[in-house]
Fold each of these.
Amino acid sequence: MKKEVVCPHCGKPYSCFRNPAPTADVVIYEPGRGVVIIRRRHAPVGFALPGGFIDEGEQAEAAAVREMREETGLDVELTGLLGVYSRPKRDPRQHTLTVVYTGRARNPEAITAGDDAAHAAFYPLNGLPAPLVFDHAEILEHFRQVLSGQRAVAAVQPLACHHLPSLDAQGRPDVDASGAACGCRAPAGPAGSAAAVAPGEAVPGKSGKEFC
């Protein structure tokens, strides 16, 4: 949405865009341990799924893995896309749009709080701490539905290759940029659609890693 504002320094009007800020969260699940929940260091104070803002030029999947490492110390493999949550009032600070993944920790014993997290631990789904901030209670309920087979997760987009072809002056690939040359095609279902992933099952291919 474009908004007309006036520069406080020169008094001239100019246009700017007001868009939701993109974030990435992960439901890190370990059978027998539960899900990873952090206690937030900053407002809004409370308990939450680990996650954070996606940086400019950063792929959502890369941001999710990075935020998990920064906030929990865990090396996380993304196993599915749970959903996108974008209600304008979901975050009291500003309008955010979050991409929520499911994942598993390769090093669950290494869990430790860092960055914006004051505490990080595994909690059983029937014993979550309170209060859960944002809409994370709803997100975790959707994850319970995944575990019970009532809801499916989608495949995770593989991280972009570093050697994809450059674009021409019109923004078109100089050659086929679909990954055919290097074999970097994302897993797909019928007619090229993303394949649904069974609960707790890793996405086929090299989920959470670069294909090249």
Amino acid sequence: MIDNRFIEKLFVVLLLGLFLQCQCQELQKTMIPKITNEFEKITIQNSKKKDDDRCIETPEGRKEIFSASEGGYILSIYYENAFYKSDKFYYKNGYIKNKSLSFNMGSPVGMLYYFDKSGKLIKEENTDEGYSFTPEKVVKYCEKNKIDLPKGYHDSGYQARVLKQVFEGKKVWRISHQTAGDKIEEIILDGKTGEELEKKVVRL
């Protein structure tokens, strides 16, 4: 005869396993890359060229887009299964100038780190101030409203866009996505509460 206590323990273990699996899937959906305040120096690798850009595809499924500007260099790292990318700006000497994460290929989220030309960390800015309605909540809002947010790198086609902006004196999220043909729906969410402040349709 099977002990009832054994059945109860087995049931608890199964529930725990199911919970952890759901948590893991949720984490994968909103995977957030790591970024630190440590000094970095750019290393330019041989890769495919497109005009002045270099695009490197790594074995881990990342795409690293490198470009040169008048003031230095820019490296954007796209992650295949993430709504985030890393943005790193470098001085001409190759030393890091500033770096942060961007949400949905747009505005910075989390900490933005600034360095001087000698590589010394001089400033840390919390770009999430005033945004209690987090990027993860924006993702859930978009899923609920059938707005397809892109993950990873896309080099063509119109993609849904999410930006941090100021609207009527408030910090907001502005979501733009294509609904049909040349029609774009723009939605403004309060950065603190997620309340819909405006919704309108514009044309491309």
Amino acid sequence: MNVRVATKKDIDSIVEVHLERFSSFFLTSLGKPFLKTFYKAFLKNPGILLVLEDEGIVKGFAAGSRDNRSFFRKLLKNNWVEFAQAGMKILLTNPAALKRMASNAGKSEKNNLIFAELLSIATLKNKKGYGKILLDEFEKEIEKENRENLPISLTTDFEENEKTVQFYKDCGYEINDVFESYHGRKMYRFIKY
């Protein structure tokens, strides 16, 4: 088993893990081309994209930022051509989705907390502790360049999510607040100092 920084060659595998684990999530509804663009954008600083391999096969990934300040603006700026192409397809097939993405990005920009952030983590179902291993490696990757000693933040669903909430608590994360995202979806924000 091995965790490493992802490369472009890993993007298809990352998208497949995402589709399997997040089948009913909003980002999934935007389709494979958008997901490929989205995760590929994390390959550039200040993004972080790690993969967990077992027997040479990608079994999980973690995506995040070293610093949440203007992160999504930087992500778009660094990859504007790819996002423009993906956005045109979405505009033609699901224009309401663009409004939701703009709303979500705008809310994240208004956050008063400054932190590194785990934005997405997923593993294929297993009994080998992939999630804990991947989270530990993500935290180590943050620490490599964390000159400001920023805490790590992550969000997860409030409703019907006890196992995940307990997992983050067991990993040393504390509930910072409860908030509502798009369409009143209740979420936890966890912080680890």
Amino acid sequence: MKRLVFLMIFTSVFFQAQEIEDLQEGYFFSESSKNFFRVDIKKPYDYYKVSSCAEDSPFIRAQFEGGDAAFNRELFRYISAYVDKEIYVVNGTFFLQMEIDKEGRVTSLNIIPKVENSDGFLRDLKFAVRKIKKNWTPSKCNNVPVDSKIRIRLNFVTESIDV
């Protein structure tokens, strides 16, 4: 009995350590029957200071509820759920640009670069990001909430195999 409990504790710690290791690397994996899908969500994000905020004014950037690692997990979860890996074979870097209003809501979402025949993929990626329900804490300039912009770099690698 003691060996069984020890074995269960050991395996649970190992699996959690693997998840933490993957998060530290910035890589997330998703598999289906034909495609192997990897998304590298680069940190740190690019935060743009509001132009109306003076250089000497204290500026606090927007924060996702739970931090950047929580946003990465949510983003990958929804990308895995709503971006169809059977249809799209995506390789390369895309930039997710978000505008966050004074209330902490994502008001504008854009994905660049625009590439040929990518309308469906970009539509699915935008849909996945919009499904994230948690709010952001807005940026603040002199402790006053202000609109802000964030840019996140996503590197996609897809490997296809014949089954």
